[in-house]
Amino acid sequence: MAVNYGSKRVVVGAHYGLRDWLAQRVTAVLMALFTVVLLAQVLLSKGPIGYDKWAGIFSTQWMKFLTFAVIIAMLYHVWVGVRDIWMDYVKPVSIRLSLQVFSIVWLVGCAGWAIQVLWRL
Known about the structure:
The chain is mainly α. It has one domain (about 20-120): 3 helical TM bundles of succinate and fumarate reductases, CATH 1.20.1300. The protein is about 75% helix and about 0% strand. The relative contact order is 0.12. Its cofactor is heme.
């Protein structure tokens, strides 16, 4: 005789666990460190802060690399958060999938634009 303790659990929502939790923390730390580095460069610069100063800050190769890494980290950070929101609160699969595809396209477009701006400096 089988005992039924309730219905089977249907797993819906963000179930990626530790990997996504850790990715959110690591990307947040990287973005925070980038902010500190950028603020230090701005606060330690002499003279008025205009386009030339900003272009000078981002013209060095190491700053371009760091900025590129932060852009990628931010994309992943945003994707994990937005995906979890769609998975937790949008129940119809077709709408959720549409929102996820739109989010991916939007984030890739934003990354392309950010990288284009960065390498144009």
